[in-house]
Structure formats: C-alpha cells, structure tokens
C-alpha cells in the first residue's frame, strides 16, 4: 500500500467571516466548501480563492437559523437543517430547495442538531451487494430481461414538463422552484437502472434524543427514540459512521447532561434494506417524484387562480361603474345586463348605456378590458392545458406503477403499499382531470364569446361616436357571431363558470369521505363528481355548501395530498418495523473528548486490522448486528498536542499535531494494521509512524478533513483540508503517493 507522506498545496479559500464551530464543510466530489455567515442564517458555498458559488437562505423565514449541514456523498445536494424543524436539500447549481423534509413536528420544541448522509449499495432484487462478491454486480445484471422490464421507464419518452410562468408566481418556497428549466431538469431527473444499485440514507439527530431517518433523499421513514439504559437521561447523537456494503450504521451518543468524557456507540440495524422484496430505490424514487409532482400541481393551481383574478378584476370595476350609472336614474328599471341584451337584439341603445360606453368606458377603457380579460383567459387555458393536465397524467403513470408493485406483492406487510389506498389516489387524480378539462372547456368558450362581445362593443362604440360610419359598421356587423355575444352577456358578463372550480383552499379533510360515500361501494368517484358538477351548473337545483366545495380544485388537491400522505405513512410504518438498535458499547476515556472520528472497515470475523483507539468487532447477518467486542490501543505522538484526527482509508488514520515547540504543525499518517490491541489497551511503545508531513510555518491549523480521490464529478486527487486558527482560511492539500512502506523498510 502506498502511503502519502508529502503535502502539495492544492487550493486555498478565504472566508468573509470566521467559520463557526463545526464548519467549514467540504464537498466530497468537488473542490468547494460550505460555511455560515456571521448570523448563521445563510449557507455560503465557496470555490477556492474565495469565489462564491451560491448563497442558500430561507425564503419567507428570514429569522430561521441553520442548525446543521451535510453534503450528499456524491456532492449532488447539501442538506441544510433549519431551526423551524425542516431539512431542505439544496441544489448548489440553483440554490433552491429540491426537497423539503419535515423532521420535527409542528407541536414539538426540539431542534435538529446533527445530520449524517450515506449511501448503501443494494442488489436489484433487494438486499445488500456484498463486498466479498467476486462477480461485478453490473456484469451480473447484463442480459437480465426481468431487470430491464422492472426498470423500464415510459415517462422518458414523454415531453418534459414546462417551467411555470414567472409573471404569475406567488409567494412561498415553491414559488420559484418550478419557474426555470434548469431547476425543472434538476428536480425531475429520470430514474436510471444504475440508480437501483444504491439507496441513500439520511439521519437527523434531534435535541430530544430522537433520530429521524429518511431514504432516497426525501422519503421520510420517521423518528425513533434511542432506548437508553437510563431513561431519565436523554442522549444526543454526535457522530455517525457507515459502510456502503452494510445496512448497519454506528451511532455515537453523548449524555444530554453535559458529560463530555464518554461516548456510547450503538449499532442501528436498517433491516428493511436487506429484507425488502422490492427494489427500495425504485419504490422510493416513484414516491418522491409523486410528491414533487404534487408540489408542481399546487403551484400550477395557484398560478391559475392568479390568472382567473386578473381576467375578472378590471371587468368587475367597469361593471361596478355601469351599475352606479344606471342607479343614477330612479325611473330606469333596467340593469346593465338587460340594457346590453336589448341593444344587442334591437340595435337601440339606452341613454344611460350610451353614457357609460362613451364617457366611462371609451376606447381606452375598452382596450384595457380586452388586454386584461384576454390575457387572463389565455393564461388559464395555457396553465391548464400545458402545465396542470400533463402533470396529472404523469401522476397517473407513477400510480399505475406503484399499484402494480402493490398487487404483485399483495399480502406482504413489509412494503407498505396498499392497492386500495393507491386506487383512491388514482380516483382522486381522475376527478382532478375531470375538473381540469371542465376549466379548459369553459375558459375556451368564455374566451371565444368574450372576443365576439368585445367586437360588438367596439362596433357599438364606433357607431355612437360617429354616426356617419353606418355603412362601414354594418359591414363589420356581418362577421359577428351574435349567439356568442348573447351567451357572454347572459352567462359570463357578471360571473365566470370557472368560479365553481378555481379555489386554492385545500380544506381540513372533513369532506374527504363525502365523495366516496356518494359513489357507493361499487361506484366511481368520477361519476359521483360528474353528477355534482351538473347539479352545480343547473340553476334549478339547490347545491349545498359541501357539494360546492367538492368540485373545487383546492379541495381535490388537498384530498390528493392527504391520500398521498396516507400512502407514505403506510410505507414508513412498514419500514420502521425493520429497524432496531443493537447492543451499546460505552467508551469512557475519563477525560474530555473534543474530537471524534470513526470508520467501519469490512473484514473477516477474526480480523485485527483496526491517541485512544477503540476497535469494535461485530458480525452482520441478514441485516442484524451481533454482539460487539471492543479492544483498546494507545498511541503517543508526543511531544505535542493532537488537534484533530480523521480516517483516510481502511488502513490509515491522519492526525493533525501541534508540536508546541515552535516547530510547524504536522500531519502524521498512522498505519492501523501496525497497532497492538488488547482488552485493557496496548501502549504501542515500539510503534513507528511514517515521517510526519510538516505544514507551512506561518499556517496554524485547528481542524482537518480528509477525502479520498474522487472521479464522480471531476478529477480530484486525495486531499487534506485544513482550517486556519483564525477560522478565516480553508486550505486544501493534495496527497501525493510516492513509495510503499515495504520498499522504504528494505532500503533502510
């Protein structure tokens, strides 16, 4: 094994303000780092030389502060925990939230204090890909027809969803997420067969001692309380380690009482990763995409509501002025609708109508009316046809896939997919499609009638302003569709038919079962909703407030969201049954612990390849961790003071040491296989380390991070990242491999 023993300055970054404790955090796959600003309300990502890549902050929650951050192992996201109880997965490219995970319930006062994020390799059929396998998993999957069918994606052949218009974007966190093509492509990345070979796991440690688990970026599994031996003392998660070939994670807890001399190491067995009969990555991908599509649909409906308001606002003002004009004449029995209808059918214009048309409305007002109403109606049509309906169609495709998985594995309780619950989602989406098509139909009809009505008003106004143009006006009247003009005056002048549907209020769930009851046991929710829609549009029918609520977009989207939460909760409950805490190991050094690092190294049962070292050996069979056995080893690097420690790989630990004799700080590479272990702690008195790697005399480091070579997103060498004593400078050194230890020993 080649051991790096020289440091070459790779990059250096200067920050705007001192990095808080625990920061900066460097990306595993890119030479960038993240730190907080002085108020801890913004996460700032820097390139080397201090160039700012992005600034991540809360929108509409400017007072919320950051409590923890963690990079995804592939560098795609940075998870940011906020004091409001959310973990938001932020894309560095867009600085926008791709996923929002509510970790802390609204009625809980706890906050997120620790984040961990790792990736576990899994097989396509479910379970773990063993590192001892001699056959490459990818080669083992070649020519596998059932696998190709399993991961066959039909939505990649569909046109991409269009970004929502920026002009009608509202407020809130999602208002700008779906308005850029780059953001849309980042949010809706197609699932690839290679994605099925791994599942990401995120752990969030709360101040009340609970640990929240989510998989595949944002699929929440739920929170678990660590069953401490002393129930009165709450533990808090301070460290985590995992291995890509194991479903067991190691959690490190400290007492909430402030005792900083001991750490309790607890195995966390995520057995559902091993035992799942379906590919977790595939199922989680579909569920998270479903949730993102719901967010997109909600935003599309908010945009539709804005356009609906725009289409009626100026018209309502003009009609209000017309009503006021007609009220000025006490002897006048007609209203604006009757007057317009009379003028349309007879050609006779009442004096008050003439006064309103020529003095109040005029050519200028008519143009404003046309611009606002036409723009609003076109916006409603486009938003429904181009944005809302395609998103609903994609939801149906995903639901059909999930329903197929649920039916194939029906009767198994370790998946959590219920065919009846998914069918309810399908029926709800069908109701949304029905209402969306009604909105599309009425908006197109209203737009066509409005165009004819405006043409007639324009001709009438021209005739009133200039009587000499009677012949030209008569020619224009020939091209009018009088039936549409009359239809607009009667049906659309004061109220739009879409008023029954366009509402954003999602309701409280009290009416969720009403539509299902109307449908009956063997009936269809769409048929029941169709009957209610016909009743709503029939002036002779009495419609209750509950029935009027059922046809609204907001209520149906709320019903879809609540039904979707039921499915997600069922999946989470099923997965939580496959989670258990193993037997804890107490590591008490009787002195204050200020730095901690750990690494899970795979090996044989009797393997012994692990400046107090603890080595814990345990077996994992079928996702269950066995009884751990712990040994100790002591290593002195004196004289001097150890400032930080970090594992470089399975065989090497790096230690940042201050010699405290006016000599430069140095980094020691410690080969772990050369350590001696026993139950009480071996002193390693004859242990020889490799020559230290000295730092620059004018650079005093206080913290260190180590990364192996990465080729995921860029060609990066193995690196050591160091934070200066004033916490203002972050330097990255490349690790150069020169010689093997055995060769050095032979020469000496």
From TrEMBL:
InterPro entries: APC4, Apc4-like_WD40_dom, APC4_long_dom, WD40/YVTN_repeat-like_dom_sf
Gene3D superfamilies: YVTN repeat-like/Quinoprotein amine dehydrogenase
Domain Anaphase-promoting complex subunit 4 long: 265-466
GO biological process: anaphase-promoting complex-dependent catabolic process; cell division; protein K11-linked ubiquitination
Keywords: Cell cycle, Cell division, Mitosis, Ubl conjugation pathway
Record GO cellular component, one term: nuclear periphery
Domain (Anaphase-promoting complex subunit 4-like WD40) ranges: 27-118
Pfam families referenced in this protein's UniProt entry, alphabetically: ANAPC4 (PF12896), ANAPC4_WD40 (PF12894)
Superkingdom, natural source: Eukaryota
Protein name: Anaphase-promoting complex subunit 4
Organism: Thielaviopsis punctulata
